[in-house]
């Protein structure tokens, strides 16, 4: 597919952010055709290059995956000549991605207001630990802190255990990147209509807080504080994880009385849906341990294949709890092409998670993995700004690039 056919073709994005949250918004845009310039300090680079599993090319697998489809250039924004070059790039761009502590860009004379004097249409995504306003605005933070402050970690873990990291991943960073991409798309639409850019302001903690079901309205209305429940949820039963006879774990989701009735039939226990037993959700919630125990005993007497066949026949939602090895071996994952395999010129064969969402007419592409630091500096300065070799050499000599 031609890049001109992709939905974000023609959109120019400057990514001066580091690590993961704001840059991931750029990865999403790049996957769908945007021209994304990853701008790094000439000597330091993005610390994401050293985060994760190292490879023979010197950059980690995390970098190769999450910096994919971006061009890479070096530029010192604190150097007068570097800042001058940056302003010229801004004049030609549609979007800027940044995640410095609030006030940093303003201190350098490169805040959004100053940049919009150059380019009024510029959309600026600003991701920080706590957002651009509020008493905590200047404090540092990472996903781990955001999970706690936003209320997610409090809910993760067993009832009597300590809070845990949900999934041991940088969830808040990835979620903030997704929300950031959504915000950028909306702001670009406004800019197309009005010619006016704006800021997209995201605090890492806000990205997880927004996804916590009904806990905010429930607390405001009833004072209910949801606690850690392991694999359970407070509103429906049975709805959790069970172990099969060969030690595999599965998820079963009974979100209604009808689904529980189908599960009871599958288990050979239709009497469980009697009016004086567990016919209604409220009855099952009141007898959570007993109901969960019945399902646990049933699951423990079956292989995962047998349990899955029984649930499928009864139209009960279930699924295996997959390790990454299970995911790589799953035929559905393969059929959906959820894993992209490429040969990278620096790191060899790579398997990367495919872009989301799936567009039927203008699908995303994987053009290359994360590039070497400064790999495209000369090309960008020449093609974007018309600089000749002597000008670029002088910038390099001065330390600006």
UniProtKB/TrEMBL annotation:
Query: Which Pfam families has this protein been placed in?
Result: CoA_transf_3
GO terms for molecular function, please?
transferase activity
Record keyword Metal-binding present: no
**Its domain of life?**
Bacteria
- What keywords would UniProt list here? Transferase
- The answer, when asked if S-adenosyl-L-methionine is one of the entry's keywords, is no
Q: Which InterPro entries match?
A: CoA-transferase_III, CoA-Trfase_fam_III, CoA-Trfase_III_dom3_sf, CoA-Trfase_III_dom_1_sf
- Protein name per its UniProtKB record: Crotonobetainyl-CoA:carnitine CoA-transferase CaiB
């Amino acid at each position: 597919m031609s890049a001109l056919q992709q939905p974000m073709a023609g959109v120019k994005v400057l990514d001066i952010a580091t690590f993961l949250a704001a840059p991931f918004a750029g990865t999403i845009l790049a996957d769908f055709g945007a021209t994304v310039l990853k701008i790094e300090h000439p000597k330091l680079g993005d610390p994401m290059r050293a985060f994760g599993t190292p490879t023979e090319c010197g950059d980690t697998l995390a970098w190769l995956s999450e910096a994919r489809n971006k061009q890479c250039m070096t530029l010192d924004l604190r150097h007068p000549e570097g800042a001058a070059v940056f302003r010229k790039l801004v004049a030609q761009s549609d979007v800027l991605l940044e995640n410095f502590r609030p006030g940093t860009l303003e201190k350098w004379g490169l805040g959004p207001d100053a940049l919009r004097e150059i380019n009024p249409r510029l959309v600026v995504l600003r991701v920080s630990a706590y957002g651009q306003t509020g008493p905590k605005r200047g404090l540092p933070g990472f996903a781990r802190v955001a999970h706690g402050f936003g209320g997610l970690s409090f809910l993760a873990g067993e009832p009597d255990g300590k809070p845990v990291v949900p999934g041991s991943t940088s969830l808040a960073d990835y979620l903030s990147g997704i929300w950031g991409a959504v915000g950028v798309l909306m702001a670009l639409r406004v800019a197309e209509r009005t010619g006016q850019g704006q800021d997209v302001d995201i605090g890492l903690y806000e990205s997880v807080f927004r996804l916590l079901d009904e806990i905010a309205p429930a607390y405001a209305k009833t004072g209910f504080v949801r606690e850690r429940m392991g694999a359970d949820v407070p509103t429906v039963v049975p709805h959790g994880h069970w172990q099969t006879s060969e030690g595999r774990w599965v998820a079963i989701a009974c979100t209604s009385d009808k689904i529980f009735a189908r599960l009871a039939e599958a288990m050979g226990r239709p009497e469980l849906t009697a009016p004086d037993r567990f016919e209604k959700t409220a009855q099952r919630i009141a007898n959570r341990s007993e109901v969960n125990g019945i399902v646990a005993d049933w699951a423990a007497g079956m292989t995962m294949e047998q349990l899955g066949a029984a649930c499928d026949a009864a139209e009960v939602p279930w699924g295996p709890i997959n390790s990454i090895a299970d995911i790589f071996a799953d035929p559905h994952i393969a059929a959906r092409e959820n894993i992209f395999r490429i040969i990278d010129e620096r790191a060899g064969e790579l398997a990367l998670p495919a872009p989301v969402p799936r567009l039927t007419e203008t699908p995303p592409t994987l053009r290359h993995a994360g590039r070497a630091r400064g790999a495209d500096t000369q090309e960008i300065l020449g093609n974007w700004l018309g600089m000749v070799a002597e000008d670029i050499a002088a910038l390099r000599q001065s330390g600006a690039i």
